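Methods, example record. To illustrate the input and output format used throughout this study, we show the complete record for DNA-binding response regulator, NarL/FixJ family, contains REC and HTH domains. The sequence lines were provided to the predictor; the line carrying structure tokens was produced by it.
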Amino acid sequence: MTVKVLLLEDEELVRGGIRMILESADDIEVVAEDTDGARVVELTDRYRPDVVLTDVQMPEVDGIEVTRRLTARPSAPAVVILTTFDVDEYVYAALRHGASGFLLKHTPPKELINAIRVVARGEAMLSPRITKRLLANFATGATGELARAKLAELTPRERDVAAHIGQGLSNGEIAKTLLLSESTVKVHIGHIMAKLGAANRTQVAILAHDGGLA
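The corresponding predicted structure is encoded as:
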């Protein structure tokens, strides 16, 4: 199956380079691109991308607003934020609104391609190198007490899965660690997200961190 990508980046050279990298993969197609997020809803409706890869800072509508507009819609595509910095207040805000993760602009080509595949499968893309730093500095507005209260609704097995999500593990890695099938892990994650009111696994990771699980 081909992963369809909508690319939003205001710098032409950067946008062109990212497009070339993505389209070097046989299973990824950049179906549309733009220099700003102002038309993101229109472009999403027209091209039905699986993933929207968007710069954080753009002239009119930035990556945070792009994320908010898309995740508020039913059957929203996964949103991945492009940023120049390891820890960026704009990224924090985007994750609060339900972004599936973020990538640094100097991410190696193979990692960029893999990231698009990962988020298209419904997983989060938080680079292992910066996951702990990101979560440690993330200000969700939720207290540890509130996070613990939410996590208390989970079964022991769901808490195990949530803890591993908080550590940045993929479904496959969680399955191997807990000796479960990937399909069972996916079922647990669906239950966890429903109980926690999380839009995606990134928000589960944040709650797991705030609640002391990760």
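Annotations derived from this record:
The domain at 142-210 is CATH 1.10.10.10 (Arc Repressor Mutant, subunit A).
The chain has a mean pLDDT of 85.
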